[in-house]
Every structure is written in structure tokens, then in C-alpha cells.
């Protein structure tokens, strides 16, 4: 194991994966970890509440808060002892697609992500990032609940 990609949205569900990732980093002492946050494009018509071509003012500030929380609580606190083995990246786009693209570009051996545990109806109506990654990824995916 050389490279783990941890896709997170900063939620408590995604934080459930942290102990398992720490265990992997302890076992594979040369492995690198990329912590990835993907935000949806603000003007994307598929983004709930957006009007095509008209970004709202609240979304950038909210996105900045999420990024700051992920950097502080996950990168700096949860994985601090792994030092330069940890890298944070933020991208904008459709999360499932971007996660798979970054995993391929970074030659990740494993994608780890949390699941909100939504049921079939929610997946049918709004989609599921973890479900999308599982269907698109060319590398193993570990979904932690």
C-alpha cells in the first residue's frame, strides 16, 4: 500500500473512517494519504437551491468553513502524527467523478470514504457519492459506516 485517498465532506459520517485510516498508516509506514474534499460547483443546476448561472453569496463562505474545519480537525488534529505523509486537496465538481479522477491521477491504491447510510429512496432521488464512486472507481473502495 503506497497511497490512500480519503474522500471526506467533513461530516461526522465521513469521520468514522479516521480510526481505520490511522490503522492503515500505522501498518504501512511508507504509505501517503491524500485527504480530498470536493465541493459542488455553485452554479451547477443539479446543486440543490442553485439557479443556473447565479451563484449565491452564502455558499462560498459555507464552503470556506468546511475546508477550514477539514484542515483543522482532520489534517492537523486527527492525522498530525503522520506529518509530511498527509496532503490536503480541494476540488470543485461532481464529487463521485472527481474522487475517481483524483484517485487515478495520484495512483491511489485505495479510496476510503464514509457513508451517510441513506436508503434506496434517497439514492434514487438525490444520488449517493459513495455509490457513484463504487460504480466508477478503478481501484478498491472502502466505505465505512
TrEMBL record:
Record keywords: ATP-binding, Nucleotide-binding
Domain of life: Bacteria
CDD domains found in the cross-reference section: USP-like
Domain UspA: 2-145
Keyword Iron-sulfur appears in the UniProt entry: no
InterPro entries: Rossmann-like_a/b/a_fold, Universal_stress_UspA, UspA
Keyword Nucleotide-binding assigned: yes
GO MF, one annotated term: ATP binding
Similarity field: Belongs to the universal stress protein A family.
This protein's name: UspA domain-containing protein
Source organism per UniProt: Ferroacidibacillus organovorans
Taxonomic lineage: Bacteria, Bacillati, Bacillota, Bacilli, Bacillales
